Amino acid sequence: MKYRLLSLAVLIFTIEASAQQGDPKLTEVWQPKVPVVAPGKTNADPPADAKVLFDGRSLAMWQSGDGRDALWTLADGVMTVKPGSGNIRTREGFGDCQLHIEWRTPAVVKGEGQGRGNSGIFLMGRYEVQVLDSYNNTTYSNGQAASIYKQHVPLANASRPPGEWQAYDILFTAPRLYPDGRVKTPARITVIHNGVLVQNNVELWGSSQYIGIASYEKHGDLEPIVLQDHGDLVSFRNIWIRPL
Ligand code: MG
Fold first, then answer.
1. Ligand 1: centre distance to CA 132 (Å)
2. Does 113 score more than 80 pLDDT?
3. Which residues, 6+ apart, have CB-to-CB distance to 193 below 8 Å?
4. N or C: which end of the chain has fewer CB within 10 A?
5. How many whole angstroms from 236 Cα to the centroid of ligand 1?
6. 138: how many CB neighbours lie within 10 A of its CB?
7. According to the 3-state scheme, what is the secondary structure of 20-31?
8. Domains plus CATH for the chain?
């Protein structure tokens, strides 16, 4: 045993010594070249290769659940849930992506728990990152702002007070499904809330469920992003995405 350990130590020493003497070029990677992406003025501004989903001027990238134009209110560069008009979704589908989205719950606090500034961002129309006024507002931990609804509790409550703009930066890896809908690899998600890491590459259990345990269902490789009408006057601005 002693002899074995000794030979292992000698081997490691020999490898390290020879690496020092070798050619450093052997471990340099030059191809492919890394694409240049001009960043935005600030980290909140869309980089040059981002697709802008909402720039404050038009709801053209969005539609209602039934395929008609989105009915949410557009005013002062901001779109706001029109309660009762239903969820809205992007006309285009997305899979793996980096998503930036800013949201604001009403300055005038009304209701409590899940009934206070509730909305949500559904990746691929089914995996919900919760939007909620979670500033001094207690609810179940896996249902507060920045939770993966009823799946993952956020690592921190980084909420700003009601009426202030907040941001999510979301990194999403779509699930890989077999043609029959079985899961090859589950979806994964990272969420940064107002600059604070709140979900660290967590594995999703399946489509978000209000009642019962989430499970996967068959869906396409690209699916729309959905914003939730939960009856509260939640606003959104500056939404952009980088398909990965
Ligand atoms: Mg919600």
1. 7
2. yes
3. 145, 146, 154, 156, 158, 159, 166, 167, 168
4. N
5. 14
6. 9
7. HHCCHHHHCCCC
8. 35-243 (2.60.120.560)
